[in-house]
Every structure is written in structure tokens, then in C-alpha cells.
Design a protein that fits this description.
304 residues; mainly alpha
Amino acid sequence: MTSAPDINLLHELEPVAAANLNRHLDLAAEWMPHEYVPWSLGRDFDALPWEPGQSRLSDVAQIAFEVNLLTEDNLPSYHREIATIFGRDSAWGTWVHRWTAEEGRHSIVMRDYLMVTRGIDPVALERGRMHQMEKGFDSGDKTPLRTIAYVSFQELATRISHRNTGRFTQDPVAEKLLTRVAADENLHMIFYRNLVTAALEIAPSATVQAIAEELMTFQMPGTGIDDFENKAKRMAKAGIYDLRIHHDDVITPLLRHWKFFELTGLDAEAEQARENVGHYLKALDDLARTYEEKREKALAAASA
């Protein structure tokens, strides 16, 4: 249940939400999922059952596509979460429904592509969808501040995962499709990033603490996917989404945009949270470097 302080903050941020909603509507291009799918390749599965050799995607590309799609499939849970936290009134409610409508296109177009091109085992994919959606997604007791901080990181991470998956497929059709999806995710990230910027002006210390909490406990929304850890490792090994990307392309640009380490006038708890973030980033960078060195040695050994 949203507390009185949270309601007050949402009220203070409502003009910013309204302005960024209008900005989003001006920039968001209408696009049709059916125009990105090569329908002429479609065949009945009853007449020709699926076999692995029919896919134009490598094993890792299939895994990445599956993880990205199953993440999008959990949209009903995400909608419930943000509608509960932000409400369904004023600009907040308009944004919640607009965001949901746009996100819905992603799973539509990605699944249609995979089915038409026979890119992945349709039975395994459907079972994965059922598993993921039956588990749902629960953000816990996140405050609105923590929510907008989390989704800023999450939308940017998702954008990069889609974009890199498209490139990795080496299929121009898939790359065009996922580039289009990534463009939506980028606009969603900007909406939330700008709200965090405004929150830093209204409640700087509380917002810094929210950013720190979400940054240091961050998990992708697809964490509940069956065998997610192994699939995420294979995606990381392929360079689709790994610690280096998370550090350099997600966390760092957002903190730079918010001038996180330059803010003044913070209380003692916020200063401590910011110091903790500094230590966390150093450890993350060191761990990313270790994994990079291991990957380079493995590649060298394989080529030899």
C-alpha cells in the first residue's frame, strides 16, 4: 500500500510525469508488428513438425531470444506492479497504460518471428512461458522512488540486451525487429531517467539512497525464467549481456547523467550510500575485468 509520503512525492512529480509523457508521445513512432515478420516463410507445424535444424539461429542466439521474449511475456505482472505503485489517475495512469500497450507489441512481434522462421522449439517456448507467467513478478515493497530508480536501470539493460541479441543472430530480419524493440525501450528508459533527475531535486538524499539500493541489488526481471542462471552465463560468454556491459553501458551513463557523484547537500545516510556505490562499482569493474581475461584465454586456447 502506498504511504502518505509516497503519495506526496508522486503528486510533486506528477507535472514532470505529464511533461515527459507528452514528450514520449511526440517522439514515439507508430509501428506495426506484422510488418517486421517474414510471413511467407510460415508453415503448419502439424504438416511439418519442428526440428532443431530448421532454425536459422545458433544455440546461444536462441537462448538470448528466448530470455528476452519470456521477459516481455510477464507484462501482466509488470502492469500490476506499476499500476499499484503509480496509480491509475492523472499522467501516471496514462503512462502506465501507454507503457503497457507499447510493451505488449514486443512479445507479439518476437513470438511471431520465432514461430514463422521456426527459430526455436515452440513446445519448449510455450512451456517456458507458462513457467514464467505462473511465477509472475513481485517487486516486493519498493517505494515509488526505488521503482523509478530500478526501471531506469532495467529499461536500459533491456534495450541493450535486445539490441545485442539482434546483432548476434546475424539475421538481418531479426536484427531489424529487435532494433525496433530496443528503440521503444530507450524511450521508456528516458521517461524514468528524467523522473529520477526531478526526484533528485525534490528529495536528493532519499533519491540517492533509492538509486544506491536498486543499483547494488539489481536483478533483471527475467530472473525467474527456468534455468535463467545458466542461460544468462551463456549470453554473457557470448558478449550479449555481461558484467562489463552492465558496468559500462548501463550503470555508468545513468550515474553520469544524474551527476550522482557530484551532488551536494546530502545527509549522512545518503553520503554513506554513495560511498558504498563507489566501492561496489570498483568491485564490479574488477570482477568484469577478471571475466574478460578468462574469456580471452579461453578464446586463445580454442583458436590454438
